[in-house]
Design goal:
Length: 243
């Protein structure tokens, strides 16, 4: 059977269109490595502790060749998001260094929030499969990741950003699944990436999730909606996450 080897399946096999053998998928997109520090916690294979993992060799046979190739656009989108965050920060810093008194023209750098949310959920699914027999994404989640189903209303991407907080752009990555309080399923994922904290959900509404997240100020979440999510940097620079 295509997409199956050594008793393990392609996690997207539920789509019914696997092709080719299982391939080694980088659990976190290899285009983001560059010395990236990765911290993982909350999955069955690392419960009770935060685990630092090396990225270069952190790959596993979890997707068939077809589905691995089908998701390459999400890896590109993640790199574009990282580069956009760094670019907004760089331009703002350069403008401030040149003098606050200047009337700088507004600069808007855009990120596709839907594709970035899909990448967050793809990365969640990858990490969940590191250990055989762990939680697996259901058909609704897989269809959303592959663009075969739209995000339900009031789900998708949110950004945790406190007003007037200083953002430190770091080459680090942290992922934490948000578990359901009773049934053990994963409802969403928190990803800390390039100095920002993102929340991605495909099932539970974002406002409901943020009510129960310990350690986070609910008022500091910017949820996806009809209007772009906007982060303002110094120097009249804005980063916009648009649908």
């Amino acid at each position: 059977m295509a997409g199956q080897a050594n008793g393990r399946n392609c996690w997207a096999a539920i789509l019914g269109d696997c092709g080719g053998p299982l391939t080694r998928e980088h659990v976190i997109s290899d285009c983001l490595f560059d010395g990236l520090s990765v911290t993982v916690q909350g999955f069955n294979w690392c419960k009770g502790q935060a685990v630092n993992v090396g990225t270069g060799g952190f790959a596993s046979k979890i997707l068939c060749e077809k589905h691995n190739n089908d998701l390459s656009n999400l890896d590109i989108a993640a790199k574009l998001a990282r580069d956009s965050i760094q670019e907004a920060h760089r331009i703002g810093a350069e403008r401030i260094a040149a003098g606050l008194s200047k009337n700088w023209p507004r600069r808007v750098i855009k990120v596709n929030q839907t594709i970035f949310a899909q990448w967050c959920l793809k990365t969640l699914s990858n990490f969940s499969q590191v250990q055989a027999g762990s939680w697996s994404p259901n058909s609704a989640l897989v269809e959303i990741i592959f663009g075969k189903r739209k995000f339900p209303a009031n789900t998708g991407l949110a950004i945790y950003a406190k007003v007037d907080s200083k953002i430190k752009i770091e080459n680090s990555f942290e992922i934490v699944p948000i578990m359901h309080s009773t049934n053990g399923n994963i409802d969403a994922v928190v990803i800390k990436f390039s100095g920002f904290t993102f929340l991605a959900s495909w099932f539970v509404q974002l406002d409901q999730l943020t009510q129960n997240m310990i350690g986070y100020d609910r008022s500091s979440f910017i949820a996806s909606g009809a209007r772009p999510m906007q982060i303002k940097f110094n120097g009249n620079v804005s980063l916009e996450f648009r649908r």
